[in-house]
Amino acid sequence: AQTVTQSQPEMSVQEAETVTLSCTYDTSESDYYLFWYKQPPSRQMILVIRQEAYKQQNATENRFSVNFQKAAKSFSLKISDSQLGDAAMYFCAYRSSVLFMYSGGGADGLTFGKGTHLIIQP
Amino acid sequence: NAGVTQTPKFQVLKTGQSMTLQCAQDMNHNSMYWYRQDPGMGLRLIYYSASEGTTDKGEVPNGYNVSRLNKREFSLRLESAAPSQTSVYFCASTEGGYGYTFGSGTRLTVV
């Protein structure tokens, strides 16, 4: 089974600074998807960014970018120009591509890390 | 608005009581999921339904049952609630697994 590890239970950054959240995963598969989700105090799960393992180019969404190192099984999230609204729990998640394809969809769903609580200091 | 709707948002149960958490999506997604979120544990998969008429166990299925009533609805039932089932429960859906839509969660307390 795949596992996702987020080694930083809590991170703190000054507003307008840059912060990087770490995520590593364990898999024997070559094709898969990786996600970062944000969960503010409202509890809503919000997709931040998504990366397909077969793509070498790192995904970017405005101030959010990832550093995807496939060989090292590492998927870190960089938040530039941090804003107060970025304060939240951040979850890294893994999804198998192979299982999904052959099962007709849905097998296993997402495997989540335990999360990193991001604090933005004004 | 299109999305995943969960009811109720909050619930307090006594040990041994039963209840059903309801989930409905209006995006015509095939796959639906139930997760639980506990402090320091992230989200863990309870059950999922790859398509209408099928359900399968996830990582932590004990103490739960599910029903995929139709393509839109996927319910989670606690037959005899235990304090260990105190958690926040999320329903999610997807079509193709490229993007997942989550409900707003149900905070369940079992006393």
Provide the descriptors you would attach to this structure in a database record.
heterodimer, A: 122 residues, mainly beta, 4-stranded antiparallel sheet, 12 strands, B: mainly beta
Overview of this structure, please?
In chain A, 6% of the residues lie in helices and 49% in strands. Chain A is mostly beta strands and 122 residues long. In chain A, strands 2, 5, 6, 10, 11 and 12 form a 6-stranded mixed β-sheet that branches. Chain A has a 4-stranded antiparallel β-sheet with strand order 3-9-8-7, with no helix packed on it. Chain A has a two-stranded antiparallel sheet with strand order 1-4. In chain A, strand 7 and strand 8 form a beta hairpin. Chain A starts with a strand and ends with a strand. Mean pLDDT of chain A is 91; it is low at 102-106. With 111 residues, chain B is mainly beta. Chain B contains no helices and 11 strands. Chain B has strands at residues 4-7, 10-13, 19-25, 31-38, 42-49, 56-57, 64-68, 74-78, 87-94, 100-102, 106-110. In chain B, strands 2, 4, 5, 6, 9, 10 and 11 form a 7-stranded mixed β-sheet that branches. Chain B has a 4-stranded antiparallel β-sheet with strand order 1-3-8-7, with no helix packed on it. The A-B interface holds A 4, 6, 9, 33, 35, 42-45, 47, 50, 91, 95, 97, 100, 103-115 and B 30-33, 35, 40-45, 48-51, 56, 58, 88, 90, 92, 94-100, 102, 104-105, 107.
